[in-house]
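Exercise: predict the fold of this chain.
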Amino acid sequence: MAVHLRISSPSGNLLGLLPYPADLKTQAEHNGAGALTFTYPRNAPGAGLLSGDDPRLSLVIDGVEQPERYLLEDDGDDPADDAGEARPIQVGCRGALALLERAVIYPVGHTPGQAVQGLDAHFPFVNATPGAILATLLQRAQARGALPEVTWDFTSAADSAGRPWPTTYTVQYDAGGDLLKTVAAITGAGWADVRMEGYRLRAYVPDTVCATDHPGIVLYLGRDVLKGPRQRSRRSVRSHLLAAGDSGNLAEVVNPTAAARYGRREAFDGRGGITDGATLAELARVTLGGMGAASEGFTIELDPAATRHRPGIDYRPGDYIRYDQRRTDPTSLEPLRVRTIATTYDDAGQPTSSLELNDLFVEQRIRVQRQLDALTNGSATASRTPLPPLGDRNDTVAPKQPDAVLVGSWAYLDRDGQQHAALAVSWPAVTQNADGTVYDDAGNYYVSYLLPGLRIAGQDPQWSPEQAVNGTIAHYDQLPAGQRVQARVRTVDASGNSSTWRLSEEIILASDTTPPPVPSKPVVTSLIGAVRAVWDGRGAQGEEMPADFAELEVHASTAAGFSPSAATIVDRLAGAAAAPITGLSYGTTYYVKFVARDRAGNSSQPSAEASAVPTVVIRSDLADQIVGTAQLADATIIGAKIALATIQDANIGTVSASKLTVGKLNADITVSARIKTGDAGARVELNSGGIEAWNANGVKTVSVSANTGEVKLVGGLSSGTSGQRIEINPTVGLPEIRFFPTAGSNYAFINAIGGNNGAAYIGLNSGSFPHNGQTAAYRLYLTEYVSALETIRTDTQKPWGGTVRMNASEGAALAYMVEDKVHGYVIASQGGAQFGRRNDDGSDSELWLDNSALQYKGTFPNYWYTEPDRGLFTGTAGMTNWTAMSLSYGPTMKSPMVPIVTLRDWQAVRAWQVTASSLTGFTTTLASASADGSVGFWCYRI
């Protein structure tokens, strides 16, 4: 998957591309702005664009520009970084909804360009729909010149889907509050849901478009979900509520179920403006209904290779899905709302996503607020206390600290197999100031963590730099597993007033507890006084060892069914190899098991058991019959003691020249012309014709001719038993020569096989190596119909990588293949040449040359970052409210480009032309302004 970024101006003009982002992460939030973060090399193409005044970014995936727009707000780098000019720039962006933070509410009586002194510092709405409130505030802001790029498609009567607003509200806002906080207040109260598409704000009746239920999307732990820490809060549980209205009106309501389960827990709720006792009691009942049980939420990490449902495509923030760990009863799954979708792209552009489901506090609060709004006919007041004159305001009241800070962690492995811990810090939203007044000037929460047991560079542990969070959860990764950790959170309002810190409990960061797979069964063979245990480097099911595999323990014992322990370890292997176990007793059976260990110290279960008995050099029943020189005194065996013909050729072992005295061996002893070890079966014979050997079946396996020196062998021939060696015709089905370059079990080989009509095929094969998650090898294969050099999977013998094939009649091909599926290819034949790619959808993108023409099928890149020597630059781009569009090639081209441009505008017929062209880009100018026209372009280099 190809991922890059486009940078545009606020008006939509494309400034350039960022083709090489790294550590790219996006976060989409329900009713929130979302975020984009990444790093970018300082010396990479387009890096200078990151220093612009107000650049806007968009994400391009496989050539398709995504609809989200991001505001580049933070960037920085470290000049002391060892990477020098290639050091990374850290970039932080927020979604386009954050534009609303750049406009504030002015007093209702204010006229753009006029003074504000003496005006009432409020903006009231009476019986207004959410659409009317938002549209009015946006219109006022644009009249002052703010938010020029923002559009909206809802009205005071209907939402963006054309659905009538069902409820009106009476509300008053303080002057000075920004529009982003206003939108957050409206969505937080459950009056509307919002989404930003490009720069268009869309508002919907709550629980409609932004709350699609997907009963068929069920995430399963162990299949779709890699990790899914669950958080449960009982903090807000109450069983008794005392409610107070106006004129001394009081009401008490009780939740007997909560009282029985949690005991008596009391709460108070003041309701100004309520004078009717029945209404007050009903309000209290609804309020208490949201406090009767613990709330629960999940932060889950998805397995991108296993999950069938694509976050952000099959479901979006605000939608409802199911998770098999949350049930309403044993047979029913509870719908859980997707609060956020966080996606991280690796270096290959492959995404990994995590979800936040059913926030601990927000869902419950929204449900209660909607019921209360229905009971009070939608009346609300944003400011319950009169404001002092605007010029006299001096906010010094600090907000409360969060009621609690929760921490949770999980362990994970990076691509190199190193284990790390991730930390999630969460807290309930603060709703009051320290003096008990309403907290209505929210700023951010600031979060940091401490590793109390970890000294760095000899220094005492320090709190991490504070992270500003516009929400109630913060995430950290790349933390050391198994270390103690503590988090803290403070609240800071819009005026900079800060609460004191709220500390979490101290926990231990999660460590990797997943053991490696059970190793495959040992292959044990006998040696002289030893046994040899061979491991193929895989698990019992043929699987590869994980990235954090550390070593294989070889255990041996004389007891069958033994349990491996430190006392039974005889060797350790770092991968597929053989372990000789020496110094063993003859005649004793030795049992061998394998145990795999990872870098975290986790041990697998023992492998299946195998056994062997060490080989004996000589039979024990002959040992005592061997007579050596120590048993023979001089002259104890003389000629008189030897009967005629009792020592024959079959009885002679080794006689050295020093043992023969002249005159002692004479014609009285006759040695025949043949020495043999037997007359039938397995035997060796030395005769006048040469040396010959037979196997147990009577088949002659060795023949050395004394006359011609010709040697014939039947069976295997090896230049050694281990280490570097050559083996000819080992015990395999085909004629084969193996080459072992090292002491391991990996080898290259040449083999041959017969073909049709007596044809002979030959193959030259490399040793095996890991490739694309498989065990692979290179093979040169020559047959009567094709010659091929290819990368193959060793288990299936099918192509798995680059391949070159030639045919005497049809031509040659260079291709990349995965088993029987072709990807990229080049084909040359008598009729011409083809250069192409088999796309994921089954179609081909191909350049075809024949005798008379050059043809192309497929698509061209859509405004893709080019290179200085590229010959074509193609694509399409659109803008709003424009008369001129300047497009950049990205780099400076090596020679001039010729742009050919076509205008598409459904609103009117317009004249246009290319008014400027250079090595870096071109400009298209219209005869009259276009509201939303677009251009298609084809630029070629000359």
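Check your answer against the key: The first strand starts at residue 3 and ends at 8.
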